[in-house]
Design a protein that fits this description.
Radius of gyration: 19 Å
Largest sheet: 4 strands, antiparallel
Number of helices: 2
Distance between the termini: 17 Å
Number of domains: 2
CATH class of the largest domain: Alpha Beta
CATH topology of the largest domain: Chitinase A, domain 3
Strand order of the largest sheet: 2-1-8-3
Number of strands: 8
Structural class: mainly beta
Order of helices and strands: EEHEEEEEEH
CATH architecture of the largest domain: Roll
């Protein structure tokens, strides 16, 4: 059973409230349950007591997940002002403000000679359902408990 101090292997899907699968992993990911906040607390709480083969579903509002979409983090410029290597949707651009802080922006749209970058998380503003399946588990080693991360499950 999933409990504090266990290394848990999971597969997951992240589903928008429209039903669209936004992200999916069929390759197990490993975490130490009760470790260092490696997932949303609501998901970790829902997994408590689950057994190998169990699937839990948790729906998170934008405020519980990646926050609301902040329009002030979206900028549009003439495509000619943007270096060629960033002129495709999905390109990742590091930008720095006047205080020297950096933020990652993604090219979200190219239209009519204009390029739009967005500094919001791609899932910001979305209600998300996490469908998480436990695929394996074992006791965490003292080192894993201390570090809050795990090695792949050894059989």
């Amino acid at each position: 059973m999933v409990a504090r101090g266990k290394v848990v292997a999971i597969t997951y899907s992240i589903i928008a409230d429209t039903g669209e699968i936004l992200e999916q992993s069929d390759i197990p990911l490993y975490y130490v349950h009760g470790g260092r906040n490696q997932m949303f607390p609501q998901v970790e709480t829902a997994l408590e007591g689950a057994a190998v083969g169990d699937t839990v579903e948790v729906t998170l509002t934008p405020d519980e997940a990646f926050g609301p979409h902040d329009p002030s983090l979206t900028f549009t410029d003439d495509i000619d002002n943007v270096p060629p290597q960033f002129r495709h949707v999905g390109a990742q651009v590091e930008m720095q403000n006047d205080q020297g802080d950096t933020r990652t922006f993604f090219v979200s749209k190219i239209e009519d000679g204009k390029l739009t970058v967005d500094g919001n998380h791609p899932f910001a503003g979305k209600t998300l359902t996490y469908a998480v399946t436990v695929t394996d588990l074992r006791d965490a080693t003292p080192e894993e408990m201390e570090q809050g991360v795990s090695s792949p499950i050894l059989h």
